[in-house]
TrEMBL record:
Pfam families: DinB_2 (PF12867)
Protein name: DinB family protein
DinB-like domain mapped to chain residues: 116-261
Superkingdom of source: Bacteria
Taxonomic path: Bacteria, Bacillati, Actinomycetota, Actinomycetes, Propionibacteriales
InterPro entries the record matches: DinB-like, DinB/YfiT-like
Source species: Nocardioides iriomotensis
């Protein structure tokens, strides 16, 4: 495995700065110990989403087409640690992930350029689709439009609020599923909003421009600085606890992962339409 990738993946994560999925608080109280064991149970087709499975052990299983997608820090299958292979494949197929987390500003800019180009290619394809397809969910994940709206929300939080001190959030932004209710109540978000593609893209392109500008104006030394504390009236509550570099990497990382999810699910939607 390339040494640069090993270094980069030490801080590589799917979630927000300072929090990995392995350590994030559970959305509900922990399941009692006696309810954490399933024996002789058929879990075919089971769906686990936004769950903490650190230390979990699955033994004596029969599984075909098992899919595991998440922030994995060690995965042993039949006595073999498969994570080195997974990371090696990711490094080979997606070098931009290593660039995002390397800590180098030029790497971060290059990683964003790759992610940005991927989104632009997808957007050109999406423009020719029936807009109804962009509202469809696959396996209860975000629809394509919800994905874009979530990325606007993330940019409002980690770029405009943390780095620029802006206090407004777009009304149709989509917060992450684990958002604490007391924090969500502080945000001027309309949960019933369902804007059309043109409106979503107008805001989306504006927020993309914010990231472009911040990366262009950043300096290597500035990445280690902490933004000023903001009023505790939005998300994240503690804006000064993250560095400028963490905020920028958070958004580029979110852009990479959600492009992956969006294109994966769009392929399913398009296949479904073709088969109708």
């Amino acid at each position: 495995m390339p040494e640069a990738w090993q270094t980069a993946t030490a801080g590589w994560r799917m979630s927000v700065p300072g929090t990995s999925v392995a350590t994030m608080p559970a959305a509900t109280p922990p399941v009692p110990e006696f309810e954490r064991r399933w024996t002789n149970v058929d879990l075919s087709g089971a769906r686990f989403h936004n769950v903490v499975l650190s230390g979990a052990k699955i033994t004596g299983v029969w599984a075909r087409d098992l899919v595991v997608d998440g922030d994995l820090r060690g995965l042993t299958v039949n006595g073999i640690d498969v994570m080195p292979y997974v990371e090696q494949r990711l490094a080979a197929e997606h070098p931009e992930l290593g660039q995002i987390w390397s800590g180098d500003l030029d790497d971060l800019r290059a990683g964003w350029a790759t992610v940005r180009a991927a989104w632009e290619s997808t957007e050109a394809e999406v423009a020719a689709l029936d807009e109804a397809m962009l509202h469809e969910r696959v396996d209860d994940e975000y629809s394509y439009l919800e994905t874009l709206r979530h990325l606007v929300f993330a940019s409002d939080a980690w770029l405009r609020r943390c780095l620029l001190g802006e206090t407004d959030f777009w009304y149709a932004g989509v917060p992450h599923d684990e958002m604490e209710p007391e924090v969500l109540e502080l945000l001027p978000i309309d949960a019933a909003a369902d804007p059309a593609l043109d409106e979503v893209m107008a805001v989306r392109l504006d927020r993309r421009g914010v990231l472009d500008r911040l990366l262009a104006e950043a300096t290597p030394d500035a990445l280690a600085e902490h933004p000023p504390a903001r009023e505790r009236n939005g998300y994240p509550l503690d804006t000064s606890g993250r560095t400028v570099g963490e905020c920028l990497r958070c958004i580029v990382n979110e852009e990479w992962w959600h492009h992956r999810y969006a294109t994966r699910d769009l392929a399913v939607v398009r296949q479904g339409v073709a088969e109708r």
